[in-house]
Specification:
Elements: H1 7-20, H2 25-41, E1 45-51, E2 58-62, E3 67-72, H3 76-82, E4 88-91, H4 97-107, H5 125-134, E5 143-144, H6 145-151, H7 158-165, E6 179-180, H8 195-204
Parallel strand pairs: 1-4, 5-6
Antiparallel strand pairs: 1-2, 2-3
Helix pairs in contact: 6-7
Length: 209
């Protein structure tokens, strides 16, 4: 015959059962409300928008720090998947008027440099240095990955330079398309439209390929 349980054992079993059972509906609803309120009031906001371009639909996004994403050759869902999952996404054109205006001027041949605050906070210091060096390449010119590495004082870093350029979150604005392979081939490109877009951008700027 099984001995009777003590009050301590009964209390422990009840606590374990409560811990393992599904939360009550009221508690669950309250928890969801708290998360929703936090997300609405505290989560960082990313504004994003879509514009037409000669490369097809082009998506842009800005955080509180500045422009954080530019992409084309992808669909809307793929672009949104790139953005910070902790942020609250707001689709709106007003916050991005300056960005889209400068891009339109670029595509029209009326602008070669961009004057926009950038948010590169997701990048490593090395990646930032690579992109800052790429910004020194004049429109109509191209550098090789080796040239970029040498300009950084790291002549043996051609491959890491290419990998850093592949993580450029704001192509066109940071002109990673001006970096090509040492043999004159295009190399890679971070923009979703691929090498055809890279070639088009270089020709727009007057580069001789």
């Amino acid at each position: 015959m099984r001995p009777p349980r003590s009050s301590d054992e009964t209390t422990l079993i009840r606590r374990l059962q409560a811990a393992l059972s599904a939360p009550r509906r009221a508690a669950l609803a309250q928890s969801k409300t708290r998360v929703k309120n936090w997300f609405t009031q505290e989560a960082p906001v990313i504004h994003w928008s879509e514009m037409r371009s000669p490369l097809g639909p082009l998506f842009v996004a800005t955080s509180a720090r500045g422009l954080c994403a530019v992409d084309f050759g992808r669909n809307e869902n793929d672009f949104i998947a790139r953005l910070d999952p902790r942020a609250r996404l707001v689709k709106e054109t007003h916050e991005l008027l300056q960005v889209t205006l400068q891009l339109k001027e670029y595509f029209a041949g009326q602008r070669t440099q961009f004057d926009l605050p950038l948010d590169l906070s997701a990048l490593t210091p090395f990646q930032k240095q690579v992109l800052e060096t790429a910004c020194r390449i004049a429109p109509g010119q191209v550098w090789s990955y080796l040239q970029v590495a040498r300009k950084m004082g790291r002549p043996k870093s051609s491959r890491p330079v290419g990998q850093a350029l592949a993580h450029n979150p704001v192509p066109i604005v940071i002109p990673c398309h001006r970096v090509i392979a040492a043999d004159g081939s295009l190399g890679g490109y971070s923009g979703g439209a691929g090498l055809s877009a890279k070639r088009w951008l270089l020709r727009l700027e007057g580069a001789r390929l």
